[in-house]
Amino acid sequence: MFKSIDYKRFFISFFLISTFVGVTLVNLDTASNLFNNTQSFIANNFGWLIVLCANGFLIFCIWMAISRFGEIRLGGTDAKPEFNFINWIAMLFSAGLGIGVIFYSVAEPVSHLSSSALFEEGVSFNERATLSMNLTFLHWGFHAWAIYGVVGLCFAYFAFN
Asked: How many angstroms separate the CA atoms of 149 and 155, rounded?
């Protein structure tokens, strides 16, 4: 069972991750400041790139679906689906959307709306609400599913074909 593990690579990775977690736990305040500053830097300087990439993933998924590549059958030409379309949609909905519909559909926009970090001083309630909903749609809408879809498609294609 463990013959395929590269022990050298495993233990180097284990050591590096354990060291990082240990240093972080010992210096919680410093780590918190570092992570908050890093997150702010990325959001302020590369937020446009994240949105652009999400749009790219969505366009790529649409292109894959309508191009000749949308006809590729995972599992080979003779493969039969394990689940029918209705069951597949039900599993997708219950696994992926369940938590979003029940909890985050309300919690995320309210959290964005109440955040002082997202808005400049004097921004109207309507502008705050619009940005809050736009961020929620980006996180839970077609863009997020396109990112999941591209990653899942890569795994599925190479695992089953």
From this structure: 10
